[in-house]
Amino acid sequence: MKKVFVTGATGLLGTNVIIKLLQNGYSVIALVRQKSKYLGEKTENLKLVEGELSSDLSSFFKDVDCIIHIAAETNQNLIRYENYKKINYDITINLFSQAETCGVQRFLFVSSANTIGYGSKEKPGSEDENQKYPFTDSFYAQSKLNAENYLLENRRNTEVVILNPAFMIGAYDVKPSSGKLIFWAWKKKMIFYPKGGKNFVHAEDAADGVILAIEKGKDKERYLLANENLSYKDFFRKINRITEQKPIMIPIPNIILSILGWIGDRLRMFNVSTALSTYNMKALQIKNYYSNQKSVKDLEIQYQPIDKAIEDAVDYFKSKEMKS
User: Fold this and answer.
1) pTM for this prediction
2) Fewer CB atoms inside 10 Å of the end CB: C or N, the chain?
3) DSSP string of 250-282?
4) Which of 143, 47, 58 is nearest to 94 (CA)?
5) Cα–Cα distance measured from residue 210 to residue 145, given in angstroms and rounded to the nearest whole number
6) Are residues 206 and 171 in contact, defined by beta-carbon separation less than 8 angstroms?
7) CA 279 to CA 3: how far, in whole Å?
């Protein structure tokens, strides 16, 4: 039985990954801040360890075959690169250094699709494409890309596989995180939507990709975990159909988003935490689309329709009586 160490165990992807690992017969050590925060499946093969990412975790790496590093700072309100670097870069490098010292065979780093250059619906972005604006100005995406590059350039004994999930939707989104986009439209009489779009993937499928990468992922390779390229309008239409609602759909002019971004930039100059910024608002205006061909070919992932992801997310939110 292979032993795996997982960070970010209580988040959307982390919970789904642990469930999949246990179902596939792995022995799992999961780092959590509080054991009570983990709401996924529990078996005798799961050991929850309370601790901090910044701690010396090497004592847990004995006989561990693979580390899956999912934990990250994703808050879009932070206004300095250093706020992201501490978690997404520094801790990643420290964790990887401990893995190499302990002789861990494989290190899986969960990054972001936005470290890879996006494309159009006709020619979606692939793993070979360099990061593009506005994500080159995103402190979050920068910190993830810098961590990727360090791992790929400095690995010695431990194999490195980079996983780049697109926008994940599914169950166990306890915050919610990406599920906020569902609440943007769910139970609303009017939906204001940006004119851009992005790639959506079921969180279960992204978790499958992580599990498959343990065995099938190639050393020093990146894999986009991506599925359907959809405009926000089409994504919200799916929510409307699945939740049986008929709201008025109103597009947000790009100039309005640009003005909001300009306002956010000025607020940030005065150290006001806000998700408003020029690059965040620009991201809503573009269609950042990606291809999953490499993950289908190398990892043999079978992706589910995004309709299923939305259904699973909505059902989960209902079961937990979560509200927007």
Assistant:
1) 0.96
2) N
3) EEPPHHHHHHHHHHHHHHHHTT---S--HHHHH
4) 58
5) 18
6) no
7) 40
Which domains does the chain possess? 3-179+199-229+289-305 (3.40.50.720)
- Give the side-chain half-sphere CA count within 13 A for 159: 14
pLDDT by 10-residue block (mean), the chain, 324 residues: 92 97 96 91 92 93 95 94 97 97 97 98 97 97 98 96 98 92 94 98 98 97 98 98 96 98 96 95 97 98 98 94 66
Tell me whether residue 237 is exposed, middle or buried, using C-beta atoms within 10 angstroms of its C-beta: 0 to 12, 13 to 18, 19 or more. middle
The confidence score (pLDDT) of residue 323 equals 61
Looking only at the bridges linking them, the beta strands covering 27-32 and 221-225 are: unpaired
What is 145-162 written as a DSSP string?
HHHHHHHHHH-SSSEEEE
> What CA–CA distance (Å, rounded) separates 84 from 75?
9
Q: How many CB atoms lie within 10 A of CB 23?
A: 11
Write out the two tokens for 289: 């689309």
Measured at the CA of 177, the angle between CA 295 and CA 55, to 5 degrees, comes to 85
pLDDT at 48: 96
pLDDT at 42: 87
Beta-carbon contacts of 65 under 8 Å, excluding residues fewer than 6 positions away, are 2, 3, 4, 104, 105, 106, 214
